[in-house]
Amino acid sequence: MEAIFHERQEGSLCAQHCLNNLLQGEYFSPVELSSIAQQLDEEERIRMAEGGVSSEEYRIFLQQPSGNMDDSGFFSIQVISNALKVWGLELILFNSPEYQRLGINPINERSFICNYKEHWFTVRKLGKQWFNLNSLLTGPELISDTYLALFLAQLQQEGYSIFVVKGDLPDCEADQLLQMIRVQQMQRPKLIGEETLQSRDESVQKPDLEQALDVSPSFDNTNMLDEDEENFQKALALSRQEIDMEDEEADLRRAIQLSMQGEHRSGFSDCCTQNIPHSSATGQTESLPSEELRRRRQAYFENTRLRHHAGCR
Questions:
Q1: Residues contacting 12, CB < 8 A, separation 6+
Q2: If you ran DSSP here, which 8-state letter would residue 107 be given?
Q3: Dihedral sign from CA coordinates of 306, 310, 311, 313
Q4: Cα-atom radius of gyration of the chain, to the nearest Å?
Q5: Does the annotation count 6 as an active-site position?
Q6: 170 to 23, 84, 134, 167: CA distances (angstroms)
Q7: pTM here?
Q8: Any catalytic annotation for residue 14?
Q9: CA 79, 80, 83 angle in degrees (round to 5)?
Q10: How far apart are the C-alpha atoms of 67 and 78, rounded to whole Å?
């Protein structure tokens, strides 16, 4: 891509960029194009004077600004056409009946000049590949052969005027190089405005990110760690307390069960009591006196009642 000449947009000099990108070199400057525009203005003035310099039409013509250029750097199709005549090139309107009757496939052409609302840009074949050399892009945009016709049709649908450049273009390094190799484009170029906006957003976001990551010297990091440690210890203590309560409740439930079994032991055989699961804690509760069992059972019921009321709140 480095071998391809590509002038990027400056002011409103898109006509200059269009011509230079087409010819692949700095062939025209604003001064030279202004000279061509002034020459065209003079030729138009002479033709208008043929009807009489005292006529109303001639007076109105002199009061009107030039139709071939303006102070912003815009140049008309007449200026571009006359500039190309120096190189033996001519422009033919792409969708004109005369050209359409030729039935030429766009792929078989060499270059196109496109215009919409005073903006000019070139689409040219270099080597065996097509490139969009729009000066509003950050670089040349590769266009495949299959996409070329669709690209031109889309431009026409958007209101562009498309001109076919007929004649032999001057030799250039990019054309010679791309005759031997084919290029691939992994990422299409952005519009110049998008590139500027993206870099501006990155410059704004970067300080914000740095500020978010910055730790103020007055911030006491040690206090925060101490507070976190204290909260952690409290949470750990509560967790242990809940575990202890659950263990105690399990013991109470087993004690109650054994107590009830003791009260009705006469009605049960030994084989039935053996079906009750035993644990180490159960073995301890079996040896507890009946008074202790009743006390634990009462504590269990009281604890359950309090938890129930707390949950209802």
A1: 72, 73, 74, 118
A2: G
A3: positive
A4: 45
A5: no
A6: 7, 11, 19, 10
A7: 0.61
A8: yes
A9: 85
A10: 10
CA–CA distance, 120 with 114 (Å, rounded to integer): 6
Is 172 among the residues known to form the active site? no
State the amino acid at position 204 in one-letter form.
Answer: V
164: nearest Cα among 81, 78, 75: 81
- What pLDDT sits at residue 249? 53
Selection from 4, 5, 22 nearest residue 115 by Cα = 22
Catalytic residue among 20, 21, 68, 134: 134
Judge contact between 16 and 135, C-beta under 8 A.
Answer: no
Catalytic residue among 6, 18, 119, 132: 119
d(CA 171, CA 136): 25
Q: Two tokens at 31?
A: 């001064």
Task: Quickly count: other Cβ atoms within 10 Å of residue 187's Cβ.
Answer: 6
Short-list 311, 259, 260, 253, CA closest to 286: 259
83 Cβ partners below 8 Å, 6+ apart?
19, 28, 32, 33, 36
| Cα–Cα dist 16/83, whole Å | 10
Per DSSP, 168 falls in state P
**Terminal CA-CA length for the chain:** 75
**Which of 14, 17, 18, 68 does the annotation list as catalytic?**
14
The residue behind tokens 């906006």 is 197
Q: What is the pLDDT along the chain (313 residues), one digit of tens a residue?
A: 789 999 999 988 999 999 999 999 999 999 999 999 999 999 988 888 887 878 888 888 888 888 889 888 889 999 999 999 999 999 999 989 989 888 889 999 999 999 998 899 999 999 999 999 999 999 999 999 999 999 999 999 999 999 999 999 999 999 999 999 998 888 889 998 775 565 565 555 544 434 433 444 444 444 544 555 565 566 555 555 544 555 555 555 555 555 454 444 444 334 333 443 443 334 444 445 556 656 665 665 566 555 545 554 4
276-307 burial: b if 16+ Cβ within 10 Å, else e: eeeeeebeebeeeeeeebeebbeebeeeeeee
